[in-house]
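Side project, low priority. Logging it here so it doesn't get lost.
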Amino acid sequence: MGGISVIETAPVGTSRREQFERDGYLIVRGLLRPEEAAHLRDYFTDIHARRAIAGYDDGLPEGDILHRYPRLVHPHRTDELSRRYMLDPRIAEVLWELFGEEPLAAQSMMYYKPPGARGQSLHQDQMPLRVSPGTCIACWIALDRADGENGGMLVVPVSHRLGVVCKGHEQNAELFFNVHGLRVPEDHQVLQTELDPGDALFFGGLTIHGSYANRTTDRFRRCFIGHYVGRSTEALAKFYHPLLTMAGEEVGVGAATGGGPCGAPEMAEPH
C-alpha cells in the first residue's frame, strides 16, 4: 500500500452528503473541541492503567505491544462516558445528513495504538457488520494527532462504488496485526489522512480503509470510534445487537444469517 496526503477540498456549493456520496468518506474538522479530545484521551489512558474495562482478546502473543494495549470493544455497554460520546448530538447531526434518515448506534470502540504497534490491513466494515439493507457508517475521532508517522487512517476514495470486495491476500504479519487484507483495485489509490485531536473521519461500510504501523517512538494514536446504521436497517450481525437510538433507546432488528456475499462463514468478531 502506498499513501499520499488526502485531498479534502470539496467543490464550492458541495454539501457534506454530496461529498460523502462522491468519495465514500468525509472529514469533519473540530467535531469535538480540543479539550474534549484531551479529556477522552486522559480518561481512556486511566481506564487502561486501572484495567477498568477489559480489552478485546485478538489472540496476539504476550510480547506484542497490542496485547498490552488491547482495543476496547463496546465500552458504551458498561461505561457512561463512552455511551455519551457514542450518542453525541454532533455525531447524530452529521449522520442524519449522510444517511438521509435517523441514525442508530451499533458499536463503540477505543484504539490506543502505542508506538511500535502494527497497522490494520485494508478491509471493509460491511463484512463483519453484515448490514441489510444498506450499510454502516463509521465515525472515527482522533484523540491524538493522527498522521502517516503514527499510523493514521488510510482510505481508498470511491472504493464504495465497488460493492463488497471478496478477493484479498495475505499481508505482511510484521506490518499488520490482521493479515487477511484486501488488494487495492486497479485505478484506485490509497490516501493518507491527517487529523488533529477532535477531528472526525466518517466513512461508509463499503469504503476500503486501514492503517500503517505506528513508526514513532513517543506518540500514541488514540481514537474513539462509533459504528452506525440507518433506521431502515432490518438485520445485522448479532454481535452488534442491540442497536440504540441516539437518545439511548434500544431497537431490535433481525440477525444476519448465511454466508454473506463472499460465501464466508457468518462473522461475529468486532471491527
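Brief comment: The chain has a mean pLDDT of 91.
Revisit when time allows.
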